TrEMBL record, chain A:
Keywords: Membrane, Transmembrane, Transmembrane helix. This is Uncharacterized protein. It comes from the Bacteria. The keyword Transmembrane helix applies. The chain crosses the membrane at residues 23-42, 54-72.
Automatic annotation (TrEMBL), chain B:
It is an enzyme of class 2 (transferase). One of its GO terms (cellular component) is membrane. One of its GO terms (molecular function) is phosphorelay sensor kinase activity. This is histidine kinase. It catalyses: ATP + protein L-histidine = ADP + protein N-phospho-L-histidine. Residues 628-662 form a coiled coil. Residues 676-890 form the Histidine kinase domain. PANTHER family: HISTIDINE KINASE 1, TWO-COMPONENT HISTIDINE KINASE. It is a multi-pass membrane protein.
Amino acid sequence: MKSKPGPLFLEQRAYRRRRMADAARVLPVLGAILFSVPLLWGQDGSGAALTTKVMLYLFVIWGLLVGLSAVISRKLREEETRSADNQTQSKTGV
Amino acid sequence: MAPLNVLVLVCLTYVAFLFVVAFAADHAARRGRGMWLRSPIIYTLSLSIYCTAWTFYGAVGFAARSGLEFATIYLGPTLVMIGWWWTLRKMVRVGRSQRVTSIADLISSRYGKSNTLAVCVTLLAVIGTTPYIALQLQSVTLSFATFAASDPTSAELPDQQSTALWVALGLTLFTILFGTRNLDANERHHGVVIAIALEAVVKLFALLAVGVFVVWGLAGGISETIARIDASPIMHWEVSGGRWVGLTMLSAAAFLCLPRMFQVMVVENENEDDLRTAAWAFPGYLMLMSLFVVPIAAIGLQTMPAGVNPDLFVLTLPLHAGRDGLAILSFIGGFSSATSMVIVAAIALSTMVSNHVVMPLWLWAKGGTAVMSGDVRHVALMARRLSIGGIVFLGYLYFRVSGGGESLAAIGLVSFAGVAQFLPALMGGLFWRAANRTGAISGLGVGFVVWMYSMFLPSFGTSSILPQHIFDHGLFGLDWLRPYALFGAEGMDPLVHAVMWSVLLNTAVFICVSLLTFPRPVERLQGAQFVNVFRHSSTATGWSGDLARSEDLMIMSQRIIGSRQAQALFSGAAQCQGLAGYLPEPTPDFLLELERELSGSVGTATAHAMISQIVGGATVSVEDLLAVADETAQIMEYSSRLEAKTQEQARTARQLRAANQKLTQLSVQKDSFLSQISHELRTPMTSIRAFSEILRDTGGLSPEEQAKYSTIIHDEAVRLTRLLDDLLDLSVLENGQVVMNTQTGRLADLLDRTIAAAGGGEADSLEIKRDRDKEDVVLTTDLDRLAQVFINLIANARKYCDAETPCLSISTKQDGAELKIDFVDNGSGIATDQQSVIFEKFAQIGATKAGGAGLGLAICREIMTRLGGDISYLPGQSGGAFRVTLPASVVSSPADETM
């Protein structure tokens, strides 16, 4: 069961959809990295970072991720429905 | 202070309200209304059962003890949710396409529908979840006790145990009422889901209200709050990297593996698109839930007297400030969190227990046959109800035995680590085709043992099971087997230590064993379907249905999915196969569909086992599959050959029918010819006899009379001769004994001669149109014979043209080298069914209009064949039309002649 090699170049819409899927895949990795950043801040004794600052940072990142996720999943849906439309059109159309 | 009675009243009212909402939603859903029940928002809110009472109360306690570390419990699920494209999308698709009923079902289904594996997962899930249920009961009890303690009017504290018991009973009732309405676990529990969604809103609102009150009411604004956090004991960011990363990963793993999360996320999912909304909305929900946790913790630590349990700050802070209303709201929030978790966990676990433990046991006890007396449906439902009761009771028992530990969060994390052991088998199953059953069981077993030894048992502290000397010197005195320092890993955080070793060893064993062992064919098939679920959502397991008895299957499925549904399913399948009645052929496709349908009610493994009992051949070997494929190929080839043969036969039959029709017509013609010919022969013979008798017997005839009678006799004899000549002519032509007398002449001259000869004395009755220019061709052939044909055609037109003013047009055209001469009259022509027989001998149209004996056209055809040409009837003209075709060899232009 060898998978057939896909076309070398995709049309622009399919290309966009794949890049959006890539973005959806990258997002959690980005989130994990950003959430780990506070670990690099000083932690020992009096030089430790303040809880409030870390908290602020965390919630800003959190909100950012929520926003990005919303944008990406919406874009993904748009691209998908559009490409589905195109497919049916190209099937039925002459 | 809030009187306890008011609290109880509010609480009961809230519960009653939940019942009503759940009932209404169920009702609406069953009536087909309530599309909004399926909206992605409801789905997202139902996911919030992740936030239990542990979150509602415990997060603040967690924050009060270790600062921002509490956030890891939410960061893990956030990362999983925004990474839905990786795992959740696949999990939901697999769950829907395989009609999975629980996480145990998913894992067992992936690894060859193995019930052993399902039982392992179920046991681990029950062990992992029971403390969690106890935790919820405890939180409700504690919060209730807090209220009671602050109420001066209550004479004595209510008994904690009895509170927990009442809560447990109420929850069991609710869960049984709304969670076991339908046997099909795949069907969405609309009532439960809507109640959970409602509780999600209530708990978020309550926590936000308390947060707003603390920040703006107690602290006096955002900047003041920040200042007070900075002055609190948790002012510094002192989180160990190991715990931060470890806890985040643990909560992410638990989010995927918790049976209750799997229930709402996969089993209750109605539309895959809902995930897109949940992908951002649920992280948003989690963010809001944790927004005020640190402020509440910090201000609680400062405001409340030392010794107050920080887990209950959410409740005690408003109470302390005299805000009874807010306190009651907060209590309801905590109550909501606890109840929704218990309900869903009980549904999820009861499905697993009844499908993978009770039902197989019951089947086995009944003698191991699926065709037995009794209604399996009731048994399954009863099993599920009893399981719900049993699970909640187990939780209650754990609560009583443990006596209610101080720290809520600790139990939660133990539970998380327990279910996280499913992760390797789950992820391996979804992404790695080579993962197999033996590997999954071994990995799960190792992970379970390590988790028990390094985390679950130590969580009870030193006890008879795990005495102090084991903590100090390890099992059997082996130093490297100390529960908190396995393999010499000293100085690690116990939680991170346990999670690391259990998951690591679990994964390692799972991978190694999978690499070393060989999967069974069913596992390989299922593996391909799970891993490549997006490539082919349809399935292809090879049930070979030769031995299956449809009736037995029908009897069995009626007991499981109900008679009406089963009958509908069976008759639908029978119709698809083109059979009447209720019993379809047990084709592999049908068996597969049936198995999937049944698995929605009793789980994959049980459904598989039941069908295999009836069908026989529980295992599918590669040879079987090859045989099936081979057979299919043969059948396909055979059927295509059959099809070709059928077409050929149909063609032959058509030809035979045509031939038969012609024969019948010929027979009729022959009959009519015979009567005609005898009539034709008889009439002249009669006159000849009569007049010859007159001449012989009558004396004294005048010479005129004698001459007249003799002429009549002569004429009749001539007529007879002509008839016999015709017959002779035809037979000679047919036998090929004729000798052609080739001459050369112009067509126009020939036609002139012919018309004159055929015209006789009545030339004016038929008008003849000609085109003399085109007739100027020279023919080299037997012109006398050709003239005979033309005469015949003209005479026919004269005889049969039924127009008022008969007209015959003779047109000539040279088409290529062939010469075509058309004779078209303006009569009614010849009917289609007669056209094919007019050239046959003895053919006479309508057998009327006395004349020839029906030999003319037959003779014409024979002549034309001899001349190398053809004569045919030309349909679709203004009337009767004949075309005489002469070949190129006989035709030459007039110029040739002159040269």
